[in-house]
Amino acid sequence: MTTLPTTVQERITLPAAYGGGAGGGGATTAADVIAMLRRRLVLIVVLFLLFTALAVGGFVIWWAYFPGYRSESLIECISDIPHAELTPEQQRLRQDEHERFVMTQARLLKSPTILGEALKLTAVRETDWWQSIQQRRWKKPDQHLIDLTEDLSAAPVRGTNFLRVSMECRRQRDSRVIVSTVVNQWYESVKRRAAEEFVDTALDAAQQELEQLDLEIADDRDRLRAITQRLPAGARQDPAGNITNEQVTQFAEQVGLLQLELAQLEQYRNIYNDPEGLAVTAEDRAIVEQDPEVAELRRALLLLEQQRAADEQTFGSGHRVLKQDDVQIEAMEAKLTQLRTERLRERRADIREAANTAFDNTRHALFLSQENLLKAESALQDQDRLLFDYTNLEAEIQQKVDYRLQLTDYTKNLARVRTQRTAINVNVAQEATEPLQRSSPNILLVPTGIFFALVFSVGIALSLEMLNTSLRTSQDIVRHLDVAMLGLVPDTDDEEVPIERVETAVRDAPRSMVAEAFRRIRTNLQFSAPAEQQRVMLLTSPRPDDGKTTVACNLAMAVAQAGRRVLLVDANFRRPGLHHVFEDIKAEGLSNLLVGNGSLSSCVVRTDLPLLDVLGSGPTPPNPAELLGSEPCQAFLKEARASYDQVIIDTAPVLLASDGPILGTAADGVILVIRANRNSRGAARRACTLLTDVGAHLFGAVLNAAQITRGGYFREQLRAYYDYQAETDAAGPPQPLIPEQPNT
Length: 744
Known about the structure:
The chain has about 750 residues and is an alpha/beta fold. It contains 27 helices and twelve strands. The protein has helices at about 10, 30-40, 40-65, 90-110, 110-120, 120-125, 130-135, 145-150, 170-195, 200-230, 245-275, 280-290, 290-315, 320-420, 445-465, 475-480, 505-510, 515-525, 550-560, 580, 590-595, 600-605, 625-630, 630-645, 660-665, 680-695, 715-730, and strands at about 70-80, 155, 160-170, 425-430, 485-490, 535-540, 565-570, 605, 610-615, 645-650, 670-675, 700-705.
């Protein structure tokens, strides 16, 4: 099998339009947004015209049938306190008191009591505003009061002593009548309330609340002191550095060290408890040799050996005395060997007992440390809970103290109002008059509506683009899959040249844009790597009906037209498709070759296109994946490499069967066919992951059935391509660069 020194993605230089080079990540750039807007330009224009028509039409209807006339009245609130009595602190308190008084009058004016009294008057009931509400079929019992509360506005004028009361109606007279009536009712109510002793009641309630608040603050501080006594020293100043936290850290480190030591001792114990697993070391032999009995036997053996040497010199070899010496030496050696074995066994028993004792002691120490750690962690949790309660209680006390200060100021203000009840006077500074011109709708609403129509149109278009997770353009392929783009095949519905069968477009319609796209894919593959490094190419797709068979057929024809011998193989045992394109395919095919029931030359079918042979799938085997991963498959690929310049294999979808990843490891590279507007980003990513995880070389991706849309790849190129073709046809037919070769 030919191996590639580098991936094809590293050798193919991606154009900037495809997202190649630095910065071609998954982030959406300004160019991408512009492309999205161009693709959705028709939708944007339609939505913009629709929203603009709604905005302008609504403004016209509002202007013609629902005009608004606003009338307003101004109420002045004046302080009668002499300026000589004021200090800076008193001035601040009196200013707050004044603003609060104005807001109180605004709320009082819009109270249901005042508005209800105004609605009972004849002047209000004779207005068109009253009659329009009266004629509603779905009105509620208090519909007049509800609408008046919503339509009437009462708010202070910032930076002045005025309270503005205004209302907008469809008739000029109605707004003046209603505003004047409500203001008059409010003014009468103010004069009545001036004689009431409502301040005394509010002051008594405030003082009682202040006393209750003092009791709550005292109780909270007692609880805070109790929590402080339960906390260890330094816990509030440095929660992370207190004694409990240090104990938890210390016990945790101790548990970790004991666990590590216990694991090592367990390994040693397992080794020592296994009689066959512990090898005799030099240290063991040295200790055994130092045993007194062993040393005594070695000395006795040495004396016997010296005696035998002396007897051999005295009696000569073969003497009876020498034989007696040999018998004594053998007996002494056997006894020494037995004694060494016994001492070695005793040493192993001692080591095993020491290891078991150390393991038990360490395990007991670990148990104690874990128990101490749990106790320390429990104490730390209690401490954290106390700190949490302390912090919350401290914040709650601070809030109550702040509120007590506000309540104290409020009590002082009420006392001042009680002693100086006439400190602030109110009077109607401006009566409501009939408006001279309409107040609504404002003509500025037209450009505002047009602007928001454009914003909504663009927003809807961009939202549709963002929600669409399918792969549609080459930028989507490179950005979301991070693979090289080998080419794009346009949709046949956008072709100007009639194509009866897209599977043979390169042969039947060589002047079409579809055929040119496949020739471009062939060129990208030829210049991406040496020919020997891409002899066997596998074509697959994430899902069925993505057009991988169409791409395989046209690519094989394009390579054959370039003068190279090509073998097109149908390895899709589950759903073969080449027999629909090449009707002369034999019943015997790849499955027969892999089980040893045929040869390559007997199963291959030669097509009418020179240099292109086709091998069908053959009968469907019961175990396609096992068959494709077998040794006969490797032998078939080796034979095909020797017989053909290019081998193109069409296999099953990678997300539905394991045939693609299995063959991908045996091929020189894989081409992933993705159908535009059909394959999602997630499915394509899973397909790439399945191929790269098994070590398959991914040449790149081919985007099939790319549609011509605004901002798309082919929109401007398509027209220019056929215009150029027309000029070429007028100049005469081109001469072939490569002469047609006979099929050998």
